[in-house]
Design goal:
Number of strands of chain C: 5
Largest sheet of chain C: 5 strands, mixed
CATH superfamily of the largest domain in chain B: Immunoglobulins
Distance between the termini of chain C: 53 Å
Largest interface: B-C, 54 and 52 residues
Chains: A alpha+beta, B mainly beta, C alpha+beta
CATH topology of the largest domain in chain C: Nuclear Transport Factor 2, Chain: A
Order of helices and strands of chain B: HEEEEEEEEEEEEEEEEEEEEEEEE
CATH architecture of the largest domain in chain B: Sandwich
Number of domains of chain B: 3
Number of helices of chain B: 1
Strand content of chain B: over 45%
CATH architecture of the largest domain in chain C: Roll
Structural class of chain C: alpha+beta
Oligomer: heterotrimer
Strand order of the largest sheet of chain C: 1-2-3-4-5
CATH class of the largest domain in chain B: Mainly Beta
Helix content of chain B: under 10%
CATH class of the largest domain in chain C: Alpha Beta
Radius of gyration of chain B: 36 Å
Shape of chain B: elongated
Structural class of chain B: mainly beta
Helix content of chain C: 40-55%
Number of helices of chain C: 3
Distance between the termini of chain B: 110 Å
Strand content of chain C: 25-35%
Number of domains of chain C: 2
Amino acid sequence: MKSGRLLAILLIGITIALIVIGTLHPASIAVAYAGGTGAFSSSATPEQAVRNLAGDIRLQQWNHAYESLANKTDFTQDQFQHDLTGYYPSLHRFATLDSFEVFPLHASENNAEVRLELHWSTVVGPSLSNRELKVAKVADQWKVEWPLIKEPVVQPRVLSDDYLRWDVIYRGAGDDWGKQEVDSPHVTIVDMHPVQRADGVVILGELLNEDVVPAYVSVSASLLTKDQSVIGTESCFDEISHLLLPKQVTPFRINFPNKTLTEVRSIRMEPFSSLVSASTGPVIAIDNERINPAPDASLSGQLINESGNVVNVAHVLGTLYDGTGQVIWVVDKYVTRALLPGNPASFNIPIPEDLARKVASQRTVISSFSFGGAA
Amino acid sequence: MTKKHFFLAALFAAAALPIVLAQDASLAIPRTIQAGDALVVSSSGSGNGTLYIVGPNQVLKRHMQPGEAPQIPPGVLIHAGHYLAILSTGSSTQSASFDVMPSDKPTKVSFLAEPSRLPVALHEGVAGAVYVFDRFGNLIVKPTPVTFQLTTPAGSAQTNQVVTRNGAAWTKMNTTAHEGRDSFVARVGDISVTRLVHQVAGDPCGLSMSVHPVGRDLQLETAPVRDCSGNPVPDGTIVTFSETYDGSLSTADVPIKQGIAKVDLPAHPGGVLSVASGVVLGNQIRWEK
Amino acid sequence: MITAVLQLPCVAVTERSCHRQRATLTIARSGARLLWKRFGTAIASLILFPWLAIPAIAQPNVHVDASMPSSPRPIESQTERAVVRDYLQSWKAMDSAFDHNRSDILAQDFIGGAAEQLSGAIKDQSALGIRTRYQDISHDIRFVFYSPEGMSIEFTDVVKFNVQVFDHGRLISSKVENARYLVVMTPSEVRWSIRIFQATQA
């Protein structure tokens, strides 16, 4: 009886102590999800101020983030939010901030410069963006001056878009042997080249739609030994433009992780194509496309949307050739922001350092998707 | 031969004996009948019995009365094939084989034509195959004349007359030099089946472009894009314009619209402009201004 | 098999009849042992005979002639092997479908007119209480036509097969038949299926 009472008192005492500790020193995530600010949330240093701001951005606490800025009178909260998420539906609009890193660059008594790296998680993979932030001391607190990047203004005007469109009418149901059907588009592999890389075998090549109708395409490959047994079969998902208009060419890259080319005697390529409804628009031009040499070798350029529609998702595919015209690598990247009519959007795609010096020419294709206007 | 082998053999013979005895009398039955005709069976048996007509294509069973001559009325045995007729009475079983043949009159034609879409001026590019059936869906194996005809929208026609072998006939025909939707017809007696074959223009031939300054940009425009036979390349075909300057490159994939493709690219003095479509290269222009 | 039996001692009151019974049993057991020793194979065969006959013809003899002198298109060896393999498989499916009166077994192997006819025959025989078995013994396949676009292959097959007909479980007839079939097969997604399956006059 005595020991039971003692145990109860002990448990109550421990519980109260833990509650007090949790109240005074809460976990930041728990505070944020509870909608509070924490008992000790201070911006005592420039780095802490930037971390607090990034934390608010990650939790989409836009009001709290906006209120913490030193230059909030220069723009509205909506402008600040759209600067990070975009004004139009895009990959970035549906992304979440996965993590961030803060790098102090310069600091004095009342001013500092900090680089904030934002690691976004999009539906097609990770995306990285950087901001160079100025941080100023206001009273006893450090506050961030946000460098707002204003959305380019699209001049209002009327544009007629008369892009050609294909629709497909298939044969009806029922097994009427010999009944007319539409043929699948004719596609052909115009180039194929296997290479050995550190992490496995890679097959590079190009696929041409030699038909007069649009094609949904894909390519798969099987590595075969001397006795025709299959070492592995893979297909190309991301490093290809799946919609090919007539006479359009796409690169492809098929990866075989942990395989070695010495085991391979032959390769069986299987291109796939099927008819799809499609439109020839929008036309996206690529300007100022260049190979930037090592170190930090990359393929860069600018995309210009020459239509009147907003392009919500753009996929850039770069084919790199050596001096003999052979494909030596395929790079790709998604542009996370929407492409506005007439407004250039930059891209920069890293190239493996060991291949960069072999690149003599390149060709870039764009695969795009549009699903609506401004939010 | 050991005693064991002798007993085994005796056992096998004993098991087979009832069946052998049952089939010692054959039915008098036509060797062949035509699909849909009546089948009359003559037998030496009498009394109650059951007539079975068995084949993978059809199975029939008729109970026979005493004195009744077993028969299958017309319109019942319609599927061509090999059948086993079995007459089973209380005392014996008689059997015989016969074939049901398809009728000679074609009623249905299955016409396989490939492809539905192909380039102009292709030697033996269009292929057609035909299977001929009677009114019951049986393949007519008797040689039957078939006429294939490929007609262009302009009215010119290629004709090929063949005869079926084992129920099938085939042909190959050339496409003409002009694009358009051809009519590919297979005719068997009164029956004709039509397929559409779309002849499309080949690869662009003699691809060329011109350049005009428009403000600070250059407007690049192709001449009407045609294949080597003079057929216009279909709208929607992609033409790639490129401009190379100072180690940089500008490109645009532009669809042909009303026979031509055009695009605006930034003007760069000393830039080299080129045009291509698929694997066909066009002319190059160096812009000096 | 006859095994050793535990023998209880005979009780004095019925000892004489007990011994007589035991003697009879002993003689019977000895006789049975002798019979099994001499005729065991025959007895086992008698029991197994109906079932032994079936596995004996499970693998038919197959001869293939793929020369096709007047075909617009030659047949590749891989296609030839696939067609023959799928055709022989179709015979197995047909046998099973007619034996069990289940037309769904034909679904993969027969399409179009052939599927309709065979399914109809199965439905007819099922309604009549009939079962049939078609066990192929040998095939002599001769390819005659491969359509130019590759969408159909035609061949003749002189096939020897055993037909058994059962009416309400009673074997009515068992006969070896010869027939010349004209077969047209068309490719589906994963295999060649029989579209026309028609016996013609030899």
